[in-house]
Write a structure and sequence with these properties.
By secondary structure, the chain is of the alpha/beta class. 37% of the residues lie in helices and 17% in strands. 45% of the residues are buried.
Length: 352
């Protein structure tokens, strides 16, 4: 359910330009902010509950990307000026509990006649690990936005939250969205950032191993060093995970992450057509598509722990210190010969 952007909407932004060009100061907590950004005020709901259409951004895409790029290099005033031209505002948000500071790009409800469903974007100026965390289905995949926010709060660089239910705009399917433009602007720049995209599935609807709580994928069929690290850490902490891949099922790498299960068994959650994944891989960056089971997402204590484990793994994978270190020849990634017992244990625990 989409509606083309009326030229009047773009032009109307100029009418509020003078009032919206400054950076807005705001305080609160990140969980409260995310709850507000995923409420009816900032997020288009399912068509059966919300008649507001998703508005195609059209020419606003260029300015959205420019505003995001300016944010990334710390040009906040200019970013705010640019954002105001498309009915967005830039917020300097101070978390009163964690003492963290975030820059927030969101639709300016005071300057637009109706929400357009373009999303909200948070940038951490002092990250611990250089990773973008994305929640493209905050409603369709319930509880994924709070889960993604917990990973972000642990020290990630950016958090992207879609502004519409997937039944109105399924953002992993197309690039003509503000979501994708911010993804592109923040992933690129001087350093290519890994992308962690958070989704949800219901294990009972799939023919997966009975204990499957997470399904991981790059979207390209490989088992990268990033997925190996995530799978290892998740398994260690009691969150059985499996990895979609196109490798020989008997290969060491597939057996390490899937035991006796073929990687193709998880193709239904492979994300092969995900455009953010295609873009990241095309640019040479790591893309990690994480599917969390429904029961895990709705168990608050376990979902908090799972987010902590993911964040800890990403700190190992993409710490700011490692990104700033001198470039060296990367070591060859191999599966150690003494690892088969782990695969056997995985099979014993999961029943193959």
């Amino acid at each position: 359910m989409r509606m083309k952007l009326c030229a009047l909407v773009v032009c109307a932004a100029s009418a509020v330009f003078a009032n919206a060009q400054g950076v807005v100061e705001e305080t609160g907590t990140l969980p409260e902010l995310v709850e507000r950004l995923t409420s009816h005020d900032y997020l288009l709901q399912h068509p059966s509950q919300d008649s507001r259409p998703y508005v195609e951004p059209g020419d606003a895409l260029r300015l959205a990307r420019r505003a995001a790029s300016l944010m990334a290099v710390g040009e906040l005033q200019q970013a705010a000026v640019t954002a105001a031209q498309i009915g967005y505002e830039l917020v300097d948000f101070h978390d009163t509990e964690s003492r963290n500071r975030y820059f927030v790009l969101r639709e300016d409800l005071a300057s637009i006649e109706q929400l357009r469903g373009w999303g909200a974007y948070l940038l951490n100026p002092a990250p611990k690990f250089n990773t973008l965390v994305e929640a493209p289905h905050p409603l369709g995949d319930s509880e994924t936005a709070p889960l993604a926010a917990r990973v972000f709060e642990s020290g990630a660089r950016g958090l992207l939250i879609a502004g519409a239910h997937r039944k109105k705009a399924d953002l992993p399917d197309f690039v003509e969205s503000v979501f994708h433009q911010v993804h592109s602007a923040w992933m690129g720049g001087q350093t290519l950032l890994p992308v962690l995209q958070v989704h949800g599935f219901a294990a009972r609807k799939h023919d997966f191993p009975k204990d499957a709580q997470l399904i991981l994928s790059t979207g390209g069929g490989s088992v990268t060093k990033e997925l190996l690290k995530l799978d290892e850490r998740l398994d260690e902490h009691g969150f059985p995970s499996y990895v979609y891949n196109t490798l020989d099922p008997t290969s060491n790498r597939n057996r390490r992450v899937n035991g006796d299960s073929a990687g193709s068994r998880f193709r239904s959650l492979a994300a092969t057509k995900n455009v953010q994944g295609q873009h990241a891989r095309g640019e040479g960056s790591a893309f990690m598509h994480l599917e969390f089971d429904y029961d895990l997402r709705h168990d608050k204590d376990r979902s908090v722990k799972a987010a902590e484990v993911v964040a800890s793994a990403m700190l190992e994978i993409a710490s700011v210190e490692s990104f700033n270190a001198p470039i060296e020849t990367p070591p060859t990634i191999t599966v150690a010969r003494n690892k088969p017992p782990r695969s056997n244990a995985k099979n014993a625990r999961r029943g193959g």
